[in-house]
Amino acid sequence: MKVVHLETGRHLYGGAQQVAYLLSALPRELVDSHLVCVPDAQIGAAVASLGLPVHELPMTGDLDLAFIGRFRRLLRQLQPDLVHIHSRRGADVLGGLAARRAKVPAILSRRVDNPEPWLSVRFKYPLFDAVLAISNGVRDALRASGVSQAIEVVRSSVDPAPWREPAPREEFLRSFDLDETAITIGVVAQLIMRKGHHVLLQALPPLVARHPNLRVLCFGQGSRREALEAAARELGLSEVVRFVGFHKDLSRWMGHFDLLAHPALMEGLGVTLLQAAAAGVPVIACRAGGMPEAVHDGVNGILVPPGEVDPLREALARLLDDAALRQRYAEAGRRLADTEFSIAAMAEGTLAAYRAVLASAGR
Fold it and tell me: Which of 176, 180, 197, 239 is the most buried (most CB within 10 A)?
């Protein structure tokens, strides 16, 4: 079967990284994969390095209606059996319209658990023959929004290899100005409200009193950085909480975290949670969205109610006080990453969805 994949993200992380993983693992004797991306996108170079065909199409924005014609002409040229659209925020609708006009079955990947507005439910989802949700949480959010199309759950994946080769400990300590006795909590998320940094900050002061060598490294960037830095100052946490920005080389550092805190109020699945599992880092996350599928409570981490300070503080205290428990969760996380969240498992689930759509379409 010939499948055209549309991904308009420019950077190779998040959803675009998942597309690259998928294309590396789909069996080439069964699937002739073609990537369509915007010019100079990082995913284009990554997929080209796999020896797969890459087609660059310009897209000036979410309302670039001319993209429909450009993509439809390319589909008519390539004559695929199926279109798999990975992008959102405009490209999903424009790509779906192009596939419909080219009379090619189309699948949409959905990676977030935000409720869908009725306009999307009414006009976007009917463009697709099936939806691939990255977690049961995303699937449930789509159903709650009224989406009636076929929804298959195919979870995101992680390549464990780079997460198991961290930089030397001395380099980690030097790079982040840490004492060798530091206990480190890592936070890897955009600095936006729904990631729950404010809840974590409120939970920290009593823990710092018990663990004066505690340090919190917040990786990521976003609109709330100044507000969060101000909140940390007001709580007397300026020396404890450090906002270190976005790091492309996160795999060099994550294995040195004593634990990962992910107090997000909502999350489709949480690739960061998969990366932590692969790196052997115990996780505290929230019982919301797809997070319980990545963090098995009492197995590789602890789940707490979203937005509640006291349960988060109690979970943090439990792990900070028990190195043996952290180690047990770390070992379980590695096993979880190797089984439930392997790239091969994601490719297998996606291929099954392709076959079901094509069979239904009589192809």
Answer: 197
Q: Average pLDDT, whole number, for the chain?
A: 95
Sheet of 2-6: strands edge to edge?
Answer: 54-56, 32-37, 2-6, 82-85, 106-110, 130-133, 151-153
* CB-based contact 130:151 (threshold 8 Å): yes
Token readout for 64 is: 């670039």
CA–CA dist 84, 121 (Å, integer): 19
Alpha helices, H only, 50-168: 66-78, 91-101, 118-119, 136-145
Whole-number pLDDT of residue 360: 87
Q: What is the pLDDT of residues 261-282, one digit of tens each?
A: 999 999 999 999 999 999 999 9
Q: Is 6 exposed, middle or buried (0-12, 13-18, 19+ CB in 10 A)?
A: buried
CB atoms within 10 A of CB 70: 16
Domains, the chain, in order of start with CATH, read: 2-157+342-360 (3.40.50.2000), 161-339 (3.40.50.2000)
